[in-house]
Task: structure prediction
Amino acid sequence: MGARRNGPFRAPPEEVTIGYHAPPPGSQSGVADYAKTLREALEKLGVNTRENGAAIQLYHLGNNSLHSEIYDRSLRQPGVIVLHDAVLHHFLLGRLSREEYISEFVYNYGEWQRDLADELWEERGGSGVDARYFDHPMLRRAVEHALAVIVHNPAAARIAADHGARNVQMIPHFAAPRPLPDAASAAYFRQRHGIPQNATLFGIFGFLRETKRVLPCLRAFRRLHAARPNTALFLAGEAASSDLKRLLETEAAQPSVYRAGFLSERELDKASVAIDCCLNLRYPGAGETSGITIRMASAGTPLIITESEECAALPESSCLRVRPGVAEAEELFEHMSVVTDCPQLVRELGQQARRHIETFHSLETVARQYKHLLCTVAS
Result:
């Protein structure tokens, strides 16, 4: 799905100035961190970035309210969209009235779906876990007039094309190079949070949504800890909904579960070497490539993830996968048991993941792909 041109061929310019639109640095958002690092890498390659006054716009879009102004501007002034979430349904639910929502749903899926739109509006309290909201990404208005849509995985590419995107480009999610903390820093991290040094430690990080399967992970850990007491779980991040926050107050109040809020970049690096395995399940999927998965894999941290199209590029030998649905609970418990009982085997999985990330997801390689696309669109 290459970039398209009209008229005679023109070589893309070597330099380009772009308008750069993303959640502000420091926002509690993985997209904000991603956008800040990418911007710095693009500027090192000679790409000039600014907020206003450029002919080509680059918009970072995600499925939360931090992207409201960015979304609105991308409709007024079409440009290149980086689609961090290929499902914008929940973002739109949070900003539209009932009438606006039904109209938008019909715009995406046709007049014959008006009754379904009305039903989904009335039942929106369950949208965080109801697969129907993920099956209807509500993406058409965002992508159909974009000059190009950048995605990070095949699932997002398929969803964008199905919703009218004419120029879809798949560029891997980068892993920023950084020195990892040493063993002493990891030990101090555990000590500071009261976690035993010799416990097998699992970690969950990021915005805690229902789709991250936090509650099933807590239930699997409770079962594991009953059979293998020398285990612990570190749960870091803010709950994305008040309902989940209330549930976590109960579910996380169990032996050997350690709770923390949002972690800074520096603290997240320390956590990546302090834990023995990251639990980063996602279901239903939203076409997103998890920044946590890429970050942990780049550190060689073993991962348990959901088997999905979004993670298809990760080699089978690089992580443990859990099938969604009825198999999830038992497979999650079994994989957590393997992490506890076979640490050397699992560490090798982490090293396989690290080698894959170093080969295919380096920041410089990804930034050059962005620059090439932006220069091509500008031509």
Observations:
- Residues 72 and 142 are 9 Å apart (CA to CA).
